[in-house]
Amino acid sequence: MRKIAALTLVTAMVALTPVARADASVTTLRGMSLEEKVGQLFVTYVNGQAADVPHPKNRTDFGVDTPAEMVRKYQPGGVIYFNNSSRDNIDTPKQIAQLSNGLQKASKIPLLISIDQEMGQVTRIGPPATQLPGNMALGAGRSTQDAQEAARITAQELRAMGINQNFAPDADVNSNPANPIIGVRSFSSDPKLAADMTKAQVTGYEGRHWFDPDSVTSTAKHFPGHGDTSEDSHTSLPVSNRSLDQWRQIDSPPFQAAIAGKIDSIMTAHIQVPQIDPSGNPATLSPKIITGLLREELKYDGVVVTDSLEMAGVRKLHSDAEIPVLAIKAGVDQLLMPPNLGLAVESVLKAVRSGEISEQRIDQSVLRILKMKLLRGVMLNAEVDVNKVDQIVGSNTQAAQRIADRTITAVRNDGQAIPLNATAPLVVGTSDAPATALATRLKATKVVTATSPTPGQTQQALAAAASADKIVVLTNGLSTRPTQLDLLNQLVATGKPVIAVATGVPYDVAHSNAKTWLATYSTTTVSMEALAKILLGETKPQGKLPVDVPGPTPYPFGHGVTW
Length: 563
What we know:
The chain is α/β, with parallel strands linked by helices. The chain is 41% helix and 11% strand. Mean pLDDT is 94; it is low at 1-17.
């Protein structure tokens, strides 16, 4: 009955003016218990691919057997899906839709169902969902229209599967080439290009009007900016040495653009910024950064969500019981993936009951979350039509290919090795899927090595090169992996024409004397097809470097050749 009443009230709110709608939201909030309010602050993982099927990890993690029972027990504000060995929620589009519907049925207030579907390097749902090349490739293409369309495609397909919040776009300015965790997830090292692309994607994800049934809540991340770090916040507590003025010039513009685009939510970073907050606390737990910079300086009043609270970056200085309380006091609204949900909920309840956090402060966050759910249409259309999923998911592959075709950058073609015009081409790659896709298209022999090739793999590639007339080498992080660089240099030394292709960060191109270098920024199928078209002379490269490339042979932002 409570869920029906809430939905009835929300339906009535749609027709109201913004002021009246806010008043009605407050009325809804007043009908909630403290426990229900605190539940809305949390976004948790789930174990399993079906809402009502037991999974042993749910008993360990939540004290219940099924994902639906977890929702009924904790009534969280949202859940997040993963596709890995420890938390595998993903099988088919129809299965995902059924899981989403089952979880929504178990919740009194409709859930935010979220995912990290940035596309490119961070993609949780693979084919048949439409695959796109990712942010840095879009930055190389320079088209805000393509960036918006890529986000629109992703949003439409996610929403068809019952997913209504995407933790994307990555709004970090990748100014540090040694950054181990952002890299190609960033649009650019240029603040303006990153800002323009971020704003375009906000429009693509969220649509142009409220209640758009094909839209999702988007989330710009990782505030105040993770692009200048040299460590991974999953495993350590990185430091950004930006001054306040540097932050305003470099890291802030994409977040300002997202806010100007009326973005629904912004995710925090588990990084220290000692010149802005000398306390040592990560940004997620910093009132100076979350309240002072984001809320007050940038005038943002939307939802703020933490990055995963399982990550080492946020757990280094404080206990799992303290972290949720400190995050709320810093100005955060949504608490993502606490390692112990029961402990986290009880910690917040205890803080409210003791007076450490006022219930009014909890109400502020819950009101933001409820408004976001309402305006995104989640309160009205939480469940999806399972019978329509397969008609929508994967229906945008041609558009994705057109976008990818405009992203490939030719950095150097001194060897005039393109078009390929080879009778016995060889593809050498660091992983199987892209090497197979490209070799199939080129009718080439392939050798798959590794990001750090063994001596045996190097010898296998050199042996195959002996009978090849042209060699295509797909690199990935070559600039930091000596054995991968050594293999490329040995292939160049054979005297055969070598076309080197950076399939990850483009910094590889500065570290080898290969006469021909291209950059795809992505190993997705559409990127390999776009590469094949250029190698075969079917299209010409259009992309330009979206970052400065330092090194022995440096290249500036904006560089790119064509023919």
